[in-house]
Here is the input.
Amino acid sequence: MSADLRADAPNGRGGLVGQPLGGETVVAERIRRLADMTWNDVEACLGESDGLVVPIGTCEQHGLHLPLSTDTLIAEAFADRIAGATGVPIAPTLSYGVNLPCDRYVPGTAGLSFDGMRESLRNLITDWTRQGFRRFFVVTAHGCATDGYGFAHHEAIKQAALPLLTERVCDVFVLFPYWEEIGDLLTDQSGVEHAGEVETSLALHLFPEMVRTDLIRDAANGEEEERYRAFPEGVATGPPPAGWNGAEGHPSAASAETGERIFERCLTAMVRFVAERGGGRNS
Ligand SMILES: [Zn+2]
Here is the structure.
């Protein structure tokens, strides 16, 4: 949780993970949602595009002020705009991810094991490849970086794709908005931290009605932080210590304006990444 989410950025394995590039956002068009189509509609859609945007969220605590769906809502906002701008259809969201060990004891938080995520995503992608989908753009705004656990959420997604890539069945790209440099947009953090300035700013921009601004509390620091450190960094075996609020960083520095700037910059990079790989066109 306290680890730097940028520390394990894309590892450069060919075709598996793509780092977004800078560029201009394409004008948004109609969003083609798999969930709203009949199978016949999807068949027609496949004639135009073999790509699919797949949003993955979490059901995970995000401090006292943000909903458990924070990662899901942020991923869906990016995924919708990517789909609209590129014409790539969008799949129903997988609303659960691999959670931070310490969050698993916080009421409401629930997720998939590493193996559960790997198998779930592989099952879905395998089915879609049977029908002709060949390029998958997985959009997730959850990092899950914590000491001793690495990038478990992302690693499970990569491993889901690995045999499909090896057998050249399809391409799978992971789009993680915070690979984009955003430190210059922040007032009190260098990058994303759990429920901190970045996520709170995005929430204020994207779903302000769900932000409990009266309950925003910065993460503990100094002596207080020492008392809580063992909880998020260790393998939690019970509920969090009294006074721990679940947020990292400085959510009090967040604003909707900052959220809009972060969103547009990260979106631009991801749209360009998808467009460069054919977008909605079959190739
Ligand atoms: Zn989050």
Q: What stands out?
A: The pocket of zinc ion is lined by residues 62, 70-71, 142, 194, 199 (CB under 6 Å). The chain has one domain: 34-276. Helices lie at 39-46, 70-86, 114-131, 152-166, 197-206, 223-233, 256-276. The longest helix spans residues 256-276.
